[in-house]
Task: structure prediction
Amino acid sequence: MKRFYLIGFLTLMLFDTLTQICIKYAGMNALPFELSSAWLVRLFSQFWIYCALIGYIGAFFTWITLLKRAPIGPAFAASHLEIISVLWLSSILFQEQIGWIKILGCGFILIGILFLAISETSTKKTVA
Result:
């Protein structure tokens, strides 16, 4: 079961990260933004927007599969691991700066997931 969770959440993180990075690329390549049909044509003529759509669909089906077996609290928290992977990739691909506040935030995300996983494990032992 642990292997299922590990593979599932890594897959979810991969799909979510793919989606966010592709949306960034699509937005950058569709500039300048304007409320017009020309902008929509520029946006939807991009490869990146369709990759983002594939990422959303993959994330949806992965998430639904995980929710069949995973407790909702830890699962919801772990589903936000893409924040860390997107931050890291954005620093590499888009030269975005990662400051101490962002690193601290990533640490809090990881600690929160860990605490929820521990509390879920201790709750199962108490009930059993």
